[in-house]
Design goal:
The protein is an alpha/beta fold and 548 residues long. The chain folds into two domains: 290 residues, Zn peptidases (Aminopeptidase); 150 residues, Alpha-Beta Plaits, CATH 3.30.70. The chain is 35% helix and 19% strand. Keywords: Hydrolase, Membrane, Metal-binding, Protease, Transmembrane, Transmembrane helix, Zinc. One of its GO terms (cellular component) is extracellular region.
Length: 548
């Protein structure tokens, strides 16, 4: 069917010019490499082709006439002051042993009112022993906040540069030993992996951050830009006594941050089988909100020999079933995911690349496809998870009370109140009482343009440490992190864990057999080692030439 006169946009063909430009690392160069222009009338393409050449020449002229003094300063700094991220065998062995020792301390948060405080105190002593330079350097101040959280203030030499913050948390979720290949708090090394609770969430980040800073100090590094390292002790139970208190303390001191970097996303590998290369789909620029909702049914108890038509368990189970069978609305197109897929389009083979380059036409198809996978489904809607159920006191007694707790993770396009209204309409039974135990809205979306310092520093460091990763994109974090407590200090909050993550690894977080490869952990240390130095290179992000 012709598009003439009906307002239809033409379907975009595979782009002929590589997004790397020229003979870039993809190996795709020039108009003939894609096959789009070959066999067509060359004359009809000439005006557009020359227009593109003129535009490219103009861009080159713009960049050529940028004053050079600033770029020369950056180049000189890199040439004379940058410390290579190369570690000796002894240093590699020490960082590995340090992580293993950290895993062996069971810093478990059981609930908002119960945690292993003995282990938390022990962990504080442990980092003093393993990272002595951090506690003896004159320009580093260490404070204990909320009894067990740690705040390091690293004072830079240039007070005109706005400080930033690196976040991590030292508490972990419980880890019953059943199903584990090795004891969860053994820190055992086997087949090139360190096993144990916290190897991915999130003692790896705690130890890698401190390790990277100590290695820099050993090499006589002095930062230009000040920064903070905040290590919360209760992130797994909302961070109210750790991160929230650190945030309040800094706010009282008048601190404003350029940006914050926390956990919350990985370099995803194997989640989308047809994707040509691994990709950092999420430098997460936002994170979902959450509701913990208690549903309760009360009834008069009685003898099971003469039961009523419905019991409290039956009523509640029916309500929960309705919630599971009625998912929240599909919100694909409202958020960052559509932009992410557009940026990734040319990393896919035919015909997926055509589909993703024309989401204006294929959006309903892509939306239904995303619903089929539990990971991508979490990116397009508010999720509903039935996590706790309690009822019954004896086999022959009609239960007086049935209770369940449901955890909702709220899509950035929705609010707490909107989700609660949908829940009420779905349950549609006045006998089921609803009680909000905890709730907060999704976080605002942080900037990811060329002027977003934190985002661009992460992007640049990813491309340095992981050159095989072609595409860095913004996204959302489907979990919740301590970073949500720092919105009063900055509008730039980014979540990225510099690790490859396969589907099996994702399942181990809060699950069983959590582990990290020794090589991956050393790479994480290297990433932070380089990132801290990159934050010193200049006052503004390096210009990024967008694909046209």
């Amino acid at each position: 069917m012709s598009g003439k006169g009906v307002g239809l946009r033409p379907i975009v063909a595979i782009r002929a010019v590589s997004r790397h430009g020229g003979g870039g690392p993809s190996g795709r160069s020039g108009p003939n490499s894609s096959g789009c222009w070959s066999g067509r009338r060359q004359g009809s393409m000439a005006p557009r082709y020359f227009h593109m050449l003129a535009l490219a020449a103009g861009l080159l002229l713009i960049f050529a006439t940028v004053p050079r003094s600033k770029s020369q300063r950056s180049r000189r700094y890199m040439e004379t002051s940058r410390i290579p991220s190369r570690f000796s065998q002894e240093e590699s062995a020490e960082m590995k042993e340090a992580l293993k020792g950290a895993i062996q301390i069971p810093t478990v948060s059981f609930s908002s009112t119960e945690s292993n405080t003995t282990a938390l105190a022990e962990f504080g002593e442990y980092i003093r022993k393993v990272f002595p330079r951090l506690f003896s350097t004159s320009f580093i101040q260490h404070e204990v906040v909320g009894e067990y959280s740690h705040l390091f203030t690293v004072r830079g030499t240039d007070p005109s540069l706005q400080p930033y913050m690196l976040l991590a948390h030292l508490d972990v979720v419980p880890a019953p030993e059943e199903g584990w290949e090795v004891p969860p708090f053994s820190g055992l090394e086997r087949d090139g992996f360190i096993h144990g609770r916290g190897t991915l969430d999130n003692k790896n980040s705690v130890m890698a951050t401190l390790q990277a800073l100590q290695l820099l100090l050993i090499r006589n590094y002095i930062p230009q830009r000040s920064f903070f390292i905040a290590l919360g002790h209760d992130e797994e139970v909302s961070g109210l006594h750790g991160a929230q208190k650190i945030s309040a303390l800094l706010q009282a001191r008048g601190v404003q941050l350029a940006f914050v970097v926390d956990e919350g996303s990985f370099i995803l590998d194997g989640f989308i089988p047809s994707l040509k290369t691994p990709f950092a789909i999420r430098i997460a620029v936002s994170e979902k909100g959450a509701i913990d909702l208690r549903l309760q049914v009360n009834m008069t108890p009685g003898h099971s020999s003469a039961p009523p038509k419905e019991t409290s368990i039956g009523i509640l189970a029916a309500a929960l079933s309705r919630l599971e069978r009625t998912p929240m609305p599909n919100l694909f197109g409202k958020g960052t995911l559509m932009m992410t897929l557009k940026q990734l389009a040319n990393e896919f083979p035919f015909p997926t690349n055509i589909i993703l380059n024309n989401l204006w036409l294929f959006r309903p198809l892509v939306s239904r496809f995303l619903e089929r996978n539990y990971m991508t489904n979490a990116l397009i809607r508010t999720t509903t998870a039935l996590t706790m159920f309690q009822a019954g006191i004896k086999t022959n007694v009609i239960p007086p009370v049935a209770q369940a707790t449901v955890n909702f993770r709220i899509h950035p396009a929705q609010t707490v109140q909107e989700v609660l209204e949908l829940v009420k309409n779905t349950v549609a039974d006045d006998r089921v009482q609803l009680q909000v135990l905890r709730a907060f809205d999704p976080l605002p979306i942080s900037p990811s343009d060329d002027q977003a310092l934190g985002y661009q520093l992460l992007r640049q460091t990813i491309q340095s440490v992981f050159p095989e990763v072609n595409t860095v994109t913004p996204g959302i974090c489907i979990g919740n992190t301590d970073s949500r407590h720092y919105t009063n200090l900055t509008s730039g909050i980014y979540r990225f864990n510099p690790l490859y993550l396969q589907p099996q690894g994702f399942s181990s977080i809060h699950g069983i057999n959590e582990k990290i490869s020794v090589q991956a952990y050393e790479t994480q240390v290297k990433f932070i080692f380089e990132f801290i130095q990159n934050a010193d290179l200049d006052k503004e992000p390096v210009p990024h030439l967008h694909e046209l």
